[in-house]
Amino acid sequence: MNTPLVSLVEAGKSYGSLDALQSMTMSLNEGEVLGLFGHNGAGKTTMMKLILGVISPSRGKVEVMGMAPDSKEAWHCRSKVGYLPENVSFYEQLTGLEVLTYFAKLKGFTRNGAKKQVTDLLEQVGITHAMKRQVKTYSKGMRQRLGLAQAFIGQPKLLLLDEPTVGLDPMATRDFYKTVDQLKSNGSSIILCSHVLPGVEQHIDRAMIMSTGQLLAMGTLKELRQQAALPVAIKPSGLNGSVANDSKLNGFLTGNCPHTLMVPEQEKLTVLRQLLSHDGLDDLHVETANLEQVYQHFLTLHETTRQEQGVQG
Amino acid sequence: MRQILTVANKEFHDGLRNRWLISITLIFALLSIGLTYFGSAASGAVGVASLSTTVASLASLAVFIIPLIALLLSYDSFVGEQESGTLLLLLTYPLSKSQLLLGKFIGQGSIIALATLLGFGASAVLLYFQTGDIDIISSFSLFIFSAILLGLSFTAISYLISLSVSEKSKAAGFALITWFLFALAFDLALLALLVGVEDGISQQGLTQLMMLNPADIFRLVNLAGLDSSDVNGALSVAINASLPQEQLIAALLAWVVLPLTLAIFIFKRKKL
Predict the structure, then answer these.
(1) What are the Cα distances from residue A158, in Å, to A154, A256, B138, B254?
(2) A contacts of B95 (beta carbons < 8 Å)
(3) Please, which residues bridge with residue A237 across strands?
(4) What percent of chain B clears pLDDT 90, i.e. is strictly above it?
(5) Residues 93 to 132 of B: which have CB under 8 A from any A CB?
(6) pLDDT tens-digit map of A153-176
(7) What integer pLDDT is reported at residue A1 of this predicted model?
(8) Spatial distance between the Cα atoms of B104 and B77, rounded to a whole number of angstroms
(9) pLDDT tens column, A13-47
(10) Which one of A14, A78, A106, A144 would you mutate to disrupt binding with B, by most B Cβ within 10 Å of its Cβ?
(11) CATH code for the structural domain at A6-225
């Protein structure tokens, strides 16, 4: 019963001699939120286009809801897919209301159904007050909200969002993540494509890190942290240099920040106990590696391997 | 079909909103009323000119202006949406490429067709009330019908341009060149062939060559009824060997259908 909603098996796409996406294998389950991270040109957009069925894979297999997304059979599934492209600018001379109505109708809504749907969505993204104004008068954030509303049309089962929070203010970003959580609890699967952004971590089930058309790492944040084996930063305060004199602890001190201990995950508890046994301790700050550090780690690793290969080649 | 109509409806409303419909209609109406009344001024009399002269002068103006308007209206249809990113988005919807293209064609085609009908129709009605001659209606019907086909043909041609380039400014340049080639250069080339090359081309051959240009077919349709003494240039030769009207209309229709089919073909192969 656990067939994935989206699955890629060694799927790749080349434009001429350029491999935009090398062999990619991944799957996305129902109700799962996947974060897709990578620099520009990492192949994120190409992968999204493959899943959307706008382009066909050069090799390998892509399946969405059990069908090849670029095939005729998959046609009716398209109304169940929402997409927010990066840098889209909607019809400037239309009003927000007209833009959304147009897209809702294309998704198969009747005139009345579209009206209801569109009013609700405008309310949800908070631009009801501006719906009768032409899009050209909208600010960047409002345009982004309009784009999001567009992607949410028809309660999609699969959502692909390319840089969804660009241009959104903190309030709108919070609202956006609330919607993501809500869609997720309704069983929608979501792919969030982004540069690594603070705050995204709590909303994704798994992360995927890509570079130059290759998959570098994929898994839950915990798995990725373990794979990366990044140390935990522990900042005690009130010890006044007694750490440096403690032979069990001073090995973890690093040169550039003298009051922070960089401790491998598995020794975290031992070190903490040791610290707690010091009398002077009045506060303790424990920081596990965040997504950004994990991302940086995999990227640097990839760069180094590539350079080494380059030297050998 | 519903998808096609949704797109057509949007394009049509864009045409209304951008004042395309009203401006084209006005241009056509002013031109045709003006020509109807003052067309014979050159021969010394102001007043309603003879029917065939009126239609002939309208046709020779329309042949320049209709292609230009059609190209202007539609050159950025696809490349414009591609630049703003909505083309990619639309294609992730349950909307096929041919549906999108046909929808746009119906929407923008309606703008051109309606403007032609209203603009030129106005002077037909005016003439009819002045003279009460029923012939006016029939010759104007043919003129308006062929003018609509000419407009649709150039709409389809501009889709070809819009789908083949990747920048809006390039599309504008190509549209201008296309207009120049079809409306001006083609005839000059034919004339050169006729005059410059001795025994180069037969009457029959010339007429056949003219089928390669929708603007010339339009001219033939509307000038065929005239005495060849009224018409100069390559056209007068062609008129003597003229084809039946049905064939000319069919050729003009082919100039709508073929570019449109080719445009769908190009769209389907277009890399996004």
Answers:
(1) 11, 46, 58, 43
(2) 106
(3) A283
(4) 51
(5) 93-95
(6) 988 999 999 888 888 888 888 888
(7) 45
(8) 8
(9) 888 888 888 888 888 998 899 999 888 778 888 89
(10) A106
(11) 3.40.50.300
Nearest chain A CA: its distance from B96 CA (Å): 9
Degrees to nearest 5, angle at CA B84 with B83 and B86: 110
Q: Which residues of A touch B91 (CB under 8 A)?
A: 54
> According to the 3-state scheme, what is the secondary structure of chain A?
CCCCCEEEEEEEEEECCEEEEEEEEEEECCCCEEEEECCCCCCHHHHHHHHHCCCCCCEEEEEECCECCCCCHHHHHHHHEEEECCCCCCCCCCEHHHHHHHHHHHCCCCHHHHHHHHHHHHHHHCCHHHCCCEHHHCCHHHHHHHHHHHHHCCCCCEEEEECCCCCCCHHHHHHHHHHHHHHHHCCCEEEEEECCCCCCHHHCCEEEEEECCEEEEEECHHHHHHHHCCCEEEEEECCCCHHHHCCCCHHHECCCCCCCEEECHHHHHHHHHHHHCCCCCCEEEEECCCHHHHHHHHHHHHHHHHHHHHHHC
Answer yes or no: are the C-beta atoms of B245 and B139 closer than 8 Å: no
List A residues 107-126 in contact with B (Cβ-Cβ < 8 A).
107-108
In the block, tokens 């006016």 appear at B136
**Interface contact flag, B88 A90, Cβ < 8 Å:** no
The CATH 3.40.50.300 portion of chain A extends over: 6-225
Residue B196 pLDDT greater than 80, yes or no: no
Residue of chain A minimizing CA distance to B87: A88
Q: What are phi and psi of A126, to 5 degrees?
A: 75, 35
Angle between helices B2-17 and B97-131 in degrees, nearest 10: 50
Q: Between residues 294 and 313 of chain A, which touch chain B (CB distance below 8 Å)?
A: none
More confident of the two residues A278 and A85: A85
Adjacent-strand bridge partners of A97: none
